[in-house]
């Protein structure tokens, strides 16, 4: 029997459920069907089974984009979380009125849209770096974004600069929840700041690592707009990430069904990696 409380619960939950069904589940089911057809975006495609999937696994450009995305994600996730934790540790010190200012400055890059951010860093790498090279004569600053190596690091720098401030806020919230009594007791027992950080703070931050690793991983894998604005996948598609490869296949080549099969494969990869990451960090939480 439904009570007034349970009726209110489902009444409030219904709009969110409708939104999930319309925005998530229906497109997911529809896309799964289209991935089994040769749909080109205009005419209804004929059913071809798993042919698109078999073709995708043999597509060198798609495989290269997956490998590039994986490499990008590994470097970005590590750098973002290291820098974010360092920034969070810095701004949780007793800095007085400067604390709020530093937090605002570090978080501000996250407020800039991906396309605009890409164009800003494109100007820095192409114009500012070239000017530095002319003044100093250092070849290190020449031709950024013109090679696969510098293009890769350009994307990493952009993404790390954008996301570190956001992850910093998550670490700050967990650092502020560490009981002061524990830190004071460790200080009275003669523990130095490094011992307090690595022996007390770091183990108690494991729940934060679960959240930040998941967020940075998911965002790194699905990056598109920064990739488009900064390098457009060049030179010669060497910095093309998986999302851009799928988009180009769908809207440039007009192979919607084939692109959808790539999207399904990409989704499965992200889900598997996310589940593995969450399960591993959860076990660390328990052991800590």
TrEMBL record:
Residues 66-277 form the ABC transmembrane type-1 domain. The chain crosses the membrane at residues 9-29, 72-92, 104-124, 152-175, 196-217, 263-280. CDD domains: TM_PBP2 (cd06261). One of its GO terms (cellular component) is plasma membrane. One of its GO terms (biological process) is transmembrane transport. It is found in: Cell membrane. InterPro entries: ABC_transporter_permease, MetI-like, MetI-like_sf. Keywords: Cell membrane, Membrane, Transmembrane, Transmembrane helix, Transport. It is a multi-pass membrane protein. Belongs to the binding-protein-dependent transport system permease family. This is ABC transmembrane type-1 domain-containing protein. It comes from Candidatus Enterococcus testudinis.
